[in-house]
Amino acid sequence: MNKTVPHLMKEIENLDLSTHDGADGSRRRIVHPRKSKLLAKLRKDNKTMTYVEEYVNGDYKLLIAHDEFAESPREYCNQFRFVASGKYSVYNDDSITPEELVKCNKHNDYLTFPVYCYEHGGVSFNLTGFHCPWDSGQIGFMYRSKLGIYNDYDVKRISPKLKEKLRKNAEAELQELEDYVMGNTFLYELYKDEEELDSCAGFLGYDHEKNGLFEHVLQCSDVQFKAEHMVWG
């Protein structure tokens, strides 16, 4: 391993990623600029990158690779807690089982959404269940204390409209976990005339317009990329 890697890893551990409510009410992740750049440097120094996509816009070239050092999204500042049984319990936010959560919630102090998993050549999670009875089933819950929700939104009850918003937030967090489990984690390097201008890591999901990668390039370098700029991938 390159001698700079341990030093980078120590500095990276001291920087956090967080989330915030987007304009559409969805939960969006904030990429810490210093941390993302350190992660990108770590991959270069450790020579682990394999480019999977290339985009070209004028004199600018955007190279995208899988992020092999991506953090679990359960390490972020999430709105909901995750608990599961079996092999997915490694992503649990607390030392509690789904069965224990059900017992703790006998007074309905928590808002809970059941988590279902479908495995057949890949992994999918959702909050509604799958039609296949053989390769799917409930594995746990996404949950949050109602008191925490009351404080977050300055309300005294959870209205149907707010519950739907919370469900979408829980779905977004679950989608990030699915992308992480499936290895849909990406980083980019931006070049102009073969000179590197910028790099960033920590993007989850194949759609770079939705996962914030293109937006991050635009904000940091004032260069706009879209799917139509893809050369190969």
Structure notes:
This protein has 233 residues and is of the alpha+beta class. It folds into two domains: 10-70 and 183-232, no CATH class; 76-182, no CATH class. The protein has six helices and eleven strands. It has helices spanning 5-13, 33-45, 98-104, 146-153, 160-182, 213-221, and strands spanning 18-21, 27-30, 51-57, 60-66, 81-84, 110-119, 123-126, 136-145, 185-192, 195-204, 230-232. The strands form three sheets. It has a five-stranded antiparallel beta sheet. The chain has a four-stranded antiparallel beta sheet with strand order 5-8-6-7. Strand 9 (185-192) and strand 10 (195-204) form a beta hairpin. The longest helix is centred in the C-terminal third of the chain and has 23 residues, at 160-182. It is elongated. The two termini are 29 Å apart. The model is unreliable at 1-33 (pLDDT under 50).
How many strands, what sense, and barrel or not for the largest sheet?
5 strands, antiparallel
Fraction of helical residues: 25-40%
Run of helices and strands: HEEHEEEHEEEHHEEHE
* Residue fraction in strands: 25-35%
Compute the number of structural domains.
2
Shape: elongated
The low-confidence runs, each spanning 5 or more residues with pLDDT under 50, are 1-33
Counting DSSP E segments of at least 2 residues, the number of strands comes to 11
- CA-atom Rg in angstroms: 20 Å
